Amino acid sequence: MIAVGRTGRGAIHVGVNAQLLSLAEGYRSAGITWYIYNLLNHLPEADDGIRYTAFLGERAYPGEAGLGLRFSRLPTHRPPVRILWEQAVQPWSLALAGVDLLHCPAFVSPLMANCPTVITVHDLSFLLYPTGFRRWNRGYLRLFTRISVRKARRVIAVSQSTRDDLLRLYGLSPEKVDVIHNGVDPRFRRLPDDQVAQFRARRGLPERFALFVGTLEPRKNVVRLIEAYAQLPPSCPPLMLVGGKGWLYDEVLGKVEELALADKIHLVGYVAAEELPWWYNAAEVFVYPSVYEGFGLPPLEAMACGTPVITSTVSSLPEVVGQAGMLIDPADVQALTGAMAQVLGDAALQAQMRMAGLEQASRFSWPKTARLTASSYRAALAAKGEGQRV
Which of 1, 90, 183, 298 would staple 213 via disulfide (CB 3.0–4.6 Å)? Predict the structure, then answer.
């Protein structure tokens, strides 16, 4: 373990397991790595009575003032090595660093942790949608998440929906679980119309199109989205599917071919985070009919860019979009078709949804997330002797 940087003089020393942080484009755990990245960037300013040490393997991460960095000598980008580090090396590293509290921002803590822990749970898809995981990964998360949240002093849920799942499936005490929403990065904002037009021209995009952003896998409900789009009039603008290939991607491709929509539905593939705001700004409507989300960043990002949002009535999605988006039953193809037709055909409705979305998105920020997270640390340290309470 290599130590780098100054950690400040705060009375409380918090360690953050940042081994899942990766700055490589296309990283599969993009949502979690984005969460870790933003926490590390904003925690040092959230509470000047707390100092931080991040334990990580991503040597390209530059760090922030007041944030100590300890780099692992092991290749923790490989899941088996990371698990070994978390369970065998991490307790030793925490003792050497003199950490008072450990934040584990991705489900699991070391079983032999020698200090109190706070755990972030992003969703329980490995329990609710287990077929989307490799068997060993599903088994590891099922066993270790259950143990970790029961041992933790505090558990952070990224939405009320995830908190409800934790209480229902793990039987945790309600007072132990804090709801702390994700934030939205300032890069996701309204961009000048002339620059958006230039982006469309560079990318060869049409003046009007509908947009989906997310990994192309069953939980995102893309096949049903394609079926709904197929029922729109031929004059409707094309649909752009932005996202990497996920589990059962071939079903998405097969449905496009089956319905002869290759000239209307375009599989764009992975798009770098720096380019995503341009896609949101260029789209006429954003459609996200996912059947389950622990939080759902894409609808929030779309609203922050002033794009009307159609999404699902399930899990955390109503919580994220509030009254600003149009909500549909993700199992109802006809409802999804009707929602797209309504928004695409009504410029006044688009303008109304655009303004409501911008207002809704303004309620979410990473500095706010960091402040509430720091408060959770303090609550955890105040709850001495309650680590085993469920």
Answer: 298
3-state SS, residue 55:
strand
**Residue 91 to residues 20, 80, 100, 245, Cα–Cα distance (Å):** 17, 17, 12, 36
Dig out the tokens for 112 from the structure: 């032999």
For residue 385, what pLDDT is reported? 53
| DSSP class of 86 | I
Give the pairing of strands 239-242 and 210-213: parallel
HSE-up of 53 (CA within 13 Å, CB side)?
25
CA dist 153 and 386 (Å) reads 6
> Tokens standing for 374?
């720091």
User: What DSSP line would sit under 151-203, residue for residue?
Assistant: H-SEEEESSHHHHHHHHHHH---GGGEEE------TTSS---HHHHHHHHHHH
- Each residue of 20-44: b (16+ CB within 10 Å) or e? bbbeeeebeebbbbbbbbbbbbbbb
| All residues at 6 or more sequence positions from 292 whose CB lies less than 8 Å from its CB, including other chains | 123, 125, 128, 129, 219, 314, 315
- Please state, in angstroms and rounded to a whole number, the distance separating the CA atoms of residues 103 and 379: 13
Q: Is the pTM above the cut of 0.85?
A: yes
Compute φ and ψ for 241, nearest 5 degrees.
Answer: -105, 105
Residue given tokens 């698990």 in the structure block: 83
Averaged pLDDT score across all residues of the chain: 92
Low-confidence ranges of the chain (pLDDT < 70): 1-10, 25-30, 384-390
Longest Cα–Cα distance of the chain, Å, equals 65
pLDDT number for residue 131: 77
**Residue 201 class from Cβ within 10 Å (0-12 exposed, 13-18 middle, 19+ buried)?**
exposed
Report the distance separating Cα 97 and Cα 361, nearest Å: 38
Q: Extract the tokens encoding 183.
A: 């934030």
Q: Are the C-beta atoms of 286 and 310 separated by less than 8 Å?
A: yes
